[in-house]
Amino acid sequence: MEFRLPELGEGVTEGELVKWRIKPGDQIKDDQALCEIMTDKATIEIPSPFAGTIKELHAKEGEIVKVHQLMVSADAVGGVVLKTHTDAPKVDTTKVEMAQIAAPKASAQGPAPAQVDVLASPHTRKVAYEKGINLATIQGSGPHGRVLLEDLEGGQSIPSRSNAATGSARSAPVAIPSTLEERIPIRGMRKKISEKMHLSKSTAAHFTYVEEADATELVALRNQAKIIAEKKGIKLTYLPFILKAMVAALRKHPRLNSIVDDASQEIITKHFYNISISVQTDDGLTVPVIKNVEQKNVFQLAKEIADIVDRARKKKLTMEDFQGSTITLTNAGSIGGLFATPIINYPEVAILGFNKIARKPVVKVIGGREKIVVRDWTYFSISLDHRIIDGADAAEFMKTFISYIEAPALLFMEDSTYGV
Q: Is 386 a catalytic site residue?
């Protein structure tokens, strides 16, 4: 039987094969993970719809694979029959995404030949690089001249520093020892982050507005709420309060809760609040979505945030977790930093940055007199698309938003979902 790559989500036609979770000869169970596929939105596990024995894998790690492309041949148990998408367009699986890997630097015997684009799989490239073999010198025996792994046998390696001629002080400069540098292919999540950041910076007209805030009342409220949250088995951070303050402010400044349709030249303002939150994982930054924030209280949001962060770090997010975002919150406060200039999660028009809260002496008017007092202080930064949002709009939004940060009790008066 044959297993082909299933649909990955609306509008998604391909993905990068990041990792196989199986190998030929493996006995697998129904719903067992076959591989990890990286799309424009997420890394997702592809489960097996059958139980049986793996015969052959038809794609390599690092390859761009198409929906309906043949992925696995297997002997299924129990007479399982799968839809094999015979009506799907044929895909030339001999072609992989080209990635140029430079040859090792010059040795004592002179410069190595320049590495050029060669048709080869990422694994073959990696092995060639580790052996010091210049792929441009290899005659590929695969389809279209593709260099196969077995073609590397007998390939001439480029002399390293250890086996180069000893020479005199007049000899050519020796290569930099390989232990002093490391080359890491840009692929998987890092590649998608690179592509999205470049698209955002090359499309949206970024500007960033920064404002400070007295977070003393917010800190006190969170400390009180933590006692209730702990009894419910919930870890309560500041993020749920920030999300609720964002919703309250966005209701008064709805243009910031929009996306841009550049194709139709339209601004699409949303009257629901799906807020993406940035999550740092071992593979890089990802931005899953907390849906319908306006309908949930702080404890519900805290549970949902904990769940989505855990699944992000375990690579268990689904395409649904990334759909429908209207604005993004990025949080580096737990690490530190005064403020940042975050990049917009295009096609959204705004991203809010939440930074560290620290104790500091400030001047306050108390009883009609100025006094120096110690307060919990923080900064918020918001990056916006200047094509859509003017500076005055940014200032007015931040003024409203920070009023809820400095007096969070106001949220109780406007939002019945804020509490328990």
A: yes
